[in-house]
C-alpha cells in the first residue's frame, strides 16, 4: 500500500476537493472517491520514484522534531533551499516525512526501526 | 534561465499523474456505473483547482495544451529555419506573430496581462480576451454572458464563425457562439488544422440543437465532451437551453431536444449556462483507511514539505536529513525533488 503522504499537497488537495464536490452533487459515492484517492497514492508514489531526478539541499535551524508512528515531523526556521537553478528562502517550513525503509505503521510511538532515536516528544509550535 | 528546470518538470509531472489516475480509475468508474462524463468533470475540476492555486507555473488545462502544441509546432519551424529560407518562411512568420497574438488569448492566467472589458467574476481565473482580437459583437456577447462565466479563448471555425470557449465558475467549459457572425480579419487560427477534426464534430452537435430559438441567443456546448471523450462525438450535455436572450439562466433537464436545424454552423444556437457554481463543502469524509502515516494539517504559509526519509542523523544538536521523493510548497509554489539533503541545528 502506497504512502498516503502526498494527499496533502497541492495536487492531492485539489483532487480531494474535486472529489468532494462530486460527492456533494451526488455524482459519485464516497467509496468511489476513496478508490480514486488510493489510485492517486499509487500514481504519485510511482511518478515521484521514477520520473523525478533532481536534488535539493537545504539548511536552517531546527525548531521542533517529532517521530511518531514512523513519521517524522520537523519544523525548521530561516531555511534556505538550494537547487542547481535557484535559491529559495523561507522563514518557516514544516517537513513531514515517512520512514522510507519501513512501510508498516506501528501502533506505538516507539520504534525499533531505523535509528536509536526514539522520540515521542511533541514540542508544539 | 532560473526556474526553467523546475517549471518544466513540475507541470509535466502533475499532468502525467493526472492522466495516469484518470485512466486508472476509468474502470472503477464504469464498474460503479458512473458515467464517463463525471470522470471528465473530475479531471476538469482537478485541473482548474491546480491552475487556480497557482502553485505551479504554466499549468495548462487540456485544450490549452493542444493549442500550445500546435503553436510550438510552428515555432520550431521558425527557429530552425531562421537564417535559411527566409523568404519561404516570410509568410508563416507573418502569420505566426498573428497567431502568437491570437494565441496570447489562450495562455493561462499566470502569463496573461489584464485586458479591458471582460467580466471576471472568478477573480482567480484571469483569462482575458485581447480587445484587439474581438469585434464589437464578440465583445457584446462576452459582456452579455452571465456571471460566473469567463471567456477563455476564441476559436475560429473553418467557416469563419467565431466560437468562444468560456469557463463557468464550476469549472465546466463551454463553447459559446455569439449569434452575430463575427469575422476576424485573416486570423486563421492554426488549431483549425486539428480543428478540421473539431469543426465537423461541432457541426454534429449543432445539428440536433433546438431550432426556433430567438436569434439573439447563443449556444454553449461543453467542449470536453466534444473533443476529448475518445470516440464519442455525441454531446450529452447536462443542461438544456432555455431560449432567452443572452443572460439566460438554465434549468437542468437532461438532454437537449433534437430538432430540425439547418446544417453547418449557421444554426441559431441557444444560450446555455449552468447555474451558479458549485460550492465545495468543508466537511470531512468518513473514510476507512488505515493510515500508514499521519497527515498533519498544515497551517504554514511559508513552506511545507512531504517526503520520505532515507536517513535522519543526529549528533548532539546537529541534525542531518537525507530525504527522498518529496513535494515541497515554498512561498506558494510547488517544487519536487528526488533527493534532499539538509542540515539544521536544534
Automatic annotation (TrEMBL), chain A:
Asked if the record carries the keyword Nucleus, the reply is yes
GO annotations of cellular component type: transcription factor TFIIA complex
Which Pfam families does UniProt cross-reference here? TFIIA_gamma_C (PF02751), TFIIA_gamma_N (PF02268)
Q: Which residues form a coiled coil?
A: none
Instruction: Cite the entry's keywords alphabetically.
Output: Nucleus, Transcription, Transcription regulation
Classification via InterPro entries = TFIIA_a-hlx (IPR009083), TFIIA_b-brl (IPR009088), TFIIA_gsu (IPR003194), TFIIA_gsu_C (IPR015871), TFIIA_gsu_N (IPR015872)
Q: Which CDD domains match?
A: TFIIA_gamma_C, TFIIA_gamma_N
Domain Transcription initiation factor IIA gamma subunit N-terminal positions? 3-48
Query: Highest taxon of the source?
Result: Eukaryota
One Gene Ontology BP term is: transcription initiation at RNA polymerase II promoter
Q: Where in the cell is it found?
A: Nucleus
Residue intervals of the Transcription initiation factor IIA gamma subunit C-terminal domain: 59-100
Quaternary state and interactors: TFIIA is a heterodimer of the large unprocessed subunit 1 and a small subunit gamma. It was originally believed to be a heterotrimer of an alpha (p35), a beta (p19) and a gamma subunit (p12). Interacts with NCOA6 general coactivator. TFIIA forms a complex with TBP. Interacts with HSF1 (via transactivation domain).
Under PANTHER family, the record lists: TRANSCRIPTION INITIATION FACTOR IIA SUBUNIT 2 (PTHR10966)
Functional note: TFIIA is a component of the transcription machinery of RNA polymerase II and plays an important role in transcriptional activation. TFIIA in a complex with TBP mediates transcriptional activity.
Spell out the family assignment given in the record's similarity comment. Answer: Belongs to the TFIIA subunit 2 family.
Q: Kindly provide the name given to this protein in its UniProt entry.
A: Transcription initiation factor IIA subunit 2
Species in which this protein is naturally found: Equus asinus (Donkey)
UniProtKB/TrEMBL annotation, chain B:
Q: Quick one: which gene encodes this? A: GTF2A1
Concerning its family, UniProt says: Belongs to the TFIIA subunit 1 family.
This chain's protein is named: Ral transcription factor IIA subunit 1
Q: What cellular component GO annotations does this protein have?
A: transcription factor TFIIA complex
Pfam families on file? TFIIA
Keywords for the protein's UniProt record, in alphabetical order: Nucleus, Transcription
Disordered as annotated region, ranges: 69-107, 247-318
Q: Please, which domain of life does this record's source organism belong to? A: Eukaryota
What organism is listed for this UniProt entry? Equus asinus
UniProt cross-references to InterPro entries, sorted A to Z: TFIIA_asu/bsu (IPR004855), TFIIA_b-brl (IPR009088)
Amino acid at each position: 500500500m502506497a504512502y498516503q503522504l502526498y494527499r496533502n499537497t497541492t495536487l492531492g488537495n485539489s483532487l480531494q476537493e474535486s472529489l468532494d464536490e462530486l460527492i456533494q452533487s451526488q455524482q459519485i459515492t464516497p467509496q468511489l472517491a476513496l478508490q480514486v484517492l488510493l489510485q492517486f497514492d499509487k500514481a504519485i508514489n510511482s511518478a515521484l520514484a521514477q520520473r523525478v531526478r533532481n536534488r535539493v539541499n537545504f539548511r536552517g535551524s531546527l525548531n521542533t522534531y517529532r517521530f511518531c508512528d514512523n513519521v517524522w515531523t520537523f519544523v525548521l526556521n530561516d531555511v534556505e533551499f538550494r537547487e542547481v537553478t535557484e535559491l529559495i528562502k523561507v522563514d518557516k517550513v514544516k517537513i513531514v516525512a515517512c520512514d522510507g525503509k519501513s512501510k508498516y505503521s506501528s501502533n506505538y510511538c516507539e520504534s525499533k526501526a531505523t535509528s536509536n532515536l526514539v522520540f515521542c516528544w511533541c514540542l508544539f509550535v | 534561465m532560473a526556474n526553467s528546470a523546475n517549471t518544466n518538470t513540475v507541470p509535466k509531472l502533475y499532468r502525467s499523474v493526472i492522466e495516469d489516475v484518470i485512466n486508472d480509475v476509468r474502470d472503477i468508474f464504469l464498474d460503479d456505473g458512473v458515467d464517463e462524463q463525471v470522470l471528465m468533470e473530475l479531471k476538469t475540476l482537478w485541473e482548474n483547482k491546480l491552475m487556480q492555486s497557482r502553485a505551479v507555473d504554466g499549468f495548462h488545462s487540456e485544450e490549452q495544451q493542444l493549442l500550445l502544441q500546435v503553436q510550438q509546432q510552428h515555432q520550431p519551424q521558425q527557429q530552425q529555419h531562421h537564417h535559411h529560407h527566409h523568404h519561404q518562411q516570410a509568410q508563416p512568420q507573418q502569420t505566426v506573430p498573428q497567431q502568437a497574438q491570437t494565441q496570447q488569448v489562450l495562455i493561462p492566467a499566470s502569463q496573461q496581462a489584464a485586458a479591458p472589458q471582460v467580466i471576471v467574476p472568478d477573480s482567480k481565473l484571469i483569462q482575458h480576451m485581447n480587445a484587439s482580437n474581438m469585434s464589437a459583437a464578440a465583445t457584446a456577447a462576452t459582456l452579455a454572458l452571465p456571471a460566473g462565466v469567463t471567456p477563455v479563448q476564441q476559436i475560429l471555425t473553418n467557416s469563419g464563425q467565431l466560437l468562444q470557449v468560456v469557463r463557468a465558475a464550476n469549472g465546466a467549459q463551454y463553447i459559446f457562439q455569439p449569434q452575430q457572425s463575427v469575422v476576424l480579419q485573416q486570423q486563421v487560427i492554426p488549431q483549425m488544422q486539428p480543428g478540421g477534426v473539431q469543426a465537423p464534430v461541432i457541426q454534429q452537435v449543432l445539428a440536433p440543437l433546438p431550432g426556433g430559438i430567438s436569434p439573439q441567443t447563443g449556444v454553449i456546448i461543453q467542449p470536453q465532451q466534444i473533443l476529448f471523450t475518445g470516440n464519442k462525438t455525441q454531446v450529452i450535455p447536462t443542461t438544456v437551453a432555455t431560449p432567452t436572450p443572452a443572460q439566460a439562466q438554465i434549468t437542468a433537464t437532461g438532454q437537449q431536444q433534437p430538432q430540425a436545424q439547418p446544417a453547418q454552423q449557421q444554426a441559431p444556437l441557444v444560450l446555455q449556462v449552468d447555474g451558479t457554481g458549485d460550492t465545495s463543502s468543508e466537511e470531512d469524509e468518513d473514510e476507512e483507511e488505515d493510515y500508514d502515516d499521519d497527515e498533519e494539517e498544515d497551517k504554514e504559509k511559508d513552506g511545507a514539505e512531504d517526503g520520505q526519509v532515507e536517513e535522519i542523523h543526529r549528533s548532539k544538536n546537529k541534525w542531518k536529513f537525507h530525504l527522498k521523493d518529496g513535494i515541497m510548497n515554498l512561498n506558494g509554489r510547488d517544487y519536487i525533488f528526488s533527493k534532499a539533503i539538509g542540515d539544521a541545528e536544534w
